[in-house]
Structure formats: C-alpha cells, structure tokens
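Lab notebook, bench 4. Still working through the backlog of constructs that have no structural model yet. Next entry is a single chain of 403 residues. Request: give me the structure tokens for it.
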Amino acid sequence: MNERLQETVRWAYAQATAVRDHFDQAGIKPDDIQTMADLARIPVMSKDAVIAMQQANPPFGGLLAVPMSDLRHIFFSPGPLYEPDNGDDPSLLRMTQLCLQQTGFQAGDVVLNALSYHLVPAGLLLDQALVGLGCTVVPGGVGNSDLQLKMMADLGVTGYVGTPSFLMSLIQKAEENGRPFSEHFKLRRALVTAEPLPPSLRQTLTEQYGLTVGNGYATAELGFLALNVGGGLAMQLLPEPIVQIVDPDSGQTVGPGEAGEVVVTNFSHAYPLIRLGTGDLALNLDPNPGQSRQEERAIILVGRCGEAVKVRGMFVHPNQLRFAVGQVAGVAAAQAVITRPENRDHFLLQVVLAGGEDQATAVDKLTAAVQATCRVRPDHVNIVSSDSLTAGSATIQDERRWT
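Model written out:
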C-alpha cells in the first residue's frame, strides 16, 4: 500500500493544482511521503475547504487531475460538491462488493436497489457492484413504496440495498395491507447505509423478520469505509482506502479508545483526495496499535466534529455521553457542564434518575461508564430534580471562557 500511496501523491502533486498548493503551503514535497505514517505531516483538508475551493475555482476547485474528457460520470452531492469519476480507482467497486459479500449477497440474488441513481453516486455504485457479483438488480431508486412492494413480490426479491428506514417502511406498509412480510416476501438479506441504524431497528429486522443485515459506513466522495454485520456499535474498517482517526486540532492519530475525526486518503488518479476530513467523529478501536492492519481496526461513529467538546485533551461528543449514561439503568436525563476554574477543565455530570436506583450506586456506575466510553472521568455527578433538565437542554454545556 505504501507504493500505491507514493504513486498517488506524486501524481496528485504534479497534476492537481489544489493538491500542489496544499503541499507547498505546508512545506511538503511528494518525496516526503514514503509511508502511511508520513501522512500525518500533511494538514487535513476539510470538506468545507473543498466546497470553498470549488466555489472559488469551479467546477472542481483544482482537485481534478485528469482532463474532463476522461471522466465517465460527474456526480453532484449535498454540500454542494461536484465529484468526478473516470473509473480508475477499482477499490471503490471492490470495497462495495466486499460489503455485499460479507452481508451474504451472492450470485443469483434478485436485489432491490432503493438508493438514488440521480446526481449522487450511491445507486450506480451499488448497481455495478451487484451486477459484478452475478446478482439481478431491480433499480427501484427512492420512494414509491407501493410499486416497490409490488416489484418485490412479483420478482421474488431476495436482497435489499438502501436506507434502513425505507426498508422498515416497506415492511410496515405490507403488513398494514394485510400481507405478513415474512410469509409473502422472499427477502433474506439487506445492506443498509446512508443513515444510522438504531440497535432496536436492527433487532427488529434480524429477529422478527429473519434478515441478515449489514450496516455500511460510506461517503459520497470515498465510497464504503467500514461495515458492521454482527450487531453492536463497532464497524470494522475495510482494507481500502486509507482511513485514519485523528485529533481535529493537531491532525495526529488518536490512541485506542479515543475519539477523533475520520480522515481518508484515496487512490484515485482522477480525483485524488489526500487526507480529506469527513467531519465524522469516531472512536478508534485498535487491538494492536502500530502493528494491526487496517481491516483489523474498527470504529464507533459518535457524531460530527463540530458538536464535540474537548475536555482535558479528549474530544467528548454528545452521542458518546448519551451512550455512556444509557448503560446505567434508571437514568431519565443527563447533562455535562464543562467549566474551567483555576485553569483546569471541570467536568460536572448532572443526572435525573427515574427512581428505584440507589443514588450512590448510580453515581458510581455513571462515573465508570462515562470514563470508559468518553475517556474522561467526571469530577462530580450530581443527582438533580426533573425540572432542572428540560427536554431542550444541551447534552454538553460548555461554560468555559477563554479570555
């Protein structure tokens, strides 16, 4: 992979003016990047920066590294972002097929593709991957649930790719119309993506309807990056492209169990994205730091970077905190209040108990759960009345003043 990285960096520097400017401003030359560890020398390029670059220098902001006549497709994703593709990066298709195979898709499956084929790359990418595996694709796209259900029944659809919420709405509509889903449909497996899959929904799909479910993490620019097929929150990273979990401030890789931004480097000659910050915040799960292969590592997505608060050097995201306190029975509401007396971050956790739990026991459990999940130990846990925390209260309230 280091050789491919070197080739990609040299090509991008020579052919894409924005990459060359980005390197030059950081005082970096292509030969400085010999291994994946050297990527830490390159400043992260945020999605917001790419949007600004495209607006200032349309259409591709200086990131296109081939003539436009070489392109097969130009997508347009929310942002807004133009995303060129000339089919030169086989890892996009390969990683998509790996997700499908690990979810159980195989030749002969008839698959409803309920992802959009318009403007964004998702529908077309899944279509190509499925056809390459020997599946028959029903290009349903988004919406029109009555027609989608008719096609599923008439064609004996065995697989589904799309959002989990739309899959559940199809199941519910069938049953509302007097057609028990498991009896009237042949669906057996689903690769869901593009939105979170709540554990309760996964449980419903797997236990009540007997489906095998893969939950894929992907972005429009970079394709599939991670997959979960066994439940829980951890998503196993795919072998490609290069995925790093870094401190949003320093750009350095965070330690095991710490939260950082998902930063990705692809191998595309047409649209080389080197150290692109996705804006997603994730916990870094690394069983053997410095030695493990990428596919041996996992992440737990916890939200967006802009919502995280740094406490004593560790990023804490509202979703992390909600997950932590959710491990303790009897918690009705919780809020972290961060202050900074005497130049030290103070972490106060305010909690409303639903009743029944011994307060001292709850405090001990909450302290342990938050420390384990967020890697920061609360200084105090206060049990407060229900009227102290309203439904609209922020999960993390940062009251520090930096003047």
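Notes after review: The longest helix spans residues 359-374. DSSP finds eleven helices and 20 strands in the chain. Flag for follow-up if needed.
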